[in-house]
Please model this.
Amino acid sequence: MKTLIIGTGNVGKALARKFQENNHQIKIYNASGQLPDGYTKNHFATNFQEAISETKLIVLAVPFEAVQSIFNKISIEPETIIVDATNPIASDMKSMSIGNTCSGAEKINEWIPNAHIVKAFNTTGWENMKNSNYPNGKLTMFYAGNDKKSKQIVASIIDSFGFQPYDAGDLFMARFIEAMAMVWIYQARINDSNPNFGFSILER
Ligand SMILES: NC(=O)c1ccc[n+]([C@@H]2O[C@H](COP(=O)([O-])OP(=O)(O)OC[C@H]3O[C@@H](n4cnc5c(N)ncnc54)[C@H](OP(=O)(O)O)[C@@H]3O)[C@@H](O)[C@H]2O)c1
Model:
């Protein structure tokens, strides 16, 4: 599937590699126009509108504050799937700039009403995206979205990346998936500096 990854930082690079390993045709795009290590110009989108018009799936791996400006002057094809991996974290890293009665993903849906938005890849660190292997089971990847078919497509991508997909529900559930991310972020980035853990759902 033709995929555009916006953001080539920690998350963008980890996910881009997984998309490539799973034979997706990828383009990457960033703010600086600097080609990240390990990528050729073939993968790099310089004309953003052109890259968007060719793509069926866009991954957002940028700071949440950058998203609105990215889509301000750009039109996307109807039914393009947007995988939103962003977290609307406030600068104090202890609160969220949006939450409880709305979510970053729902804001994005306000800005791009014709897109099929799936919140995913926000509840764990880039280290786990790069390597999702754990000895005692699969990590769970929670997702939520506004279109059933798009959620199925993203669930199969999540599965192919080595996670157990978990359908958390409609897009409004992104409010709680984004809040959940704060538990991982606090432990991994602030409290303990150990990113080698993740959420996993047990069923019976
Ligand atoms: N870090 C994690 O483990 C993790 C896990 C889950 C979710 N998230 C979320 O994922 C997002 C990205 O996190 P990250 O750690 O990958 O951040 P990062 O390493 O700082 O990378 C951010 C990327 O966004 C690009 N960018 C910024 N503004 C842009 C714009 N206007 N247009 C195009 N590209 C733009 C930057 O471009 P340049 O390279 O050119 O500067 C950079 O490549 C954040 O919302 C974060 O909350 C992070």
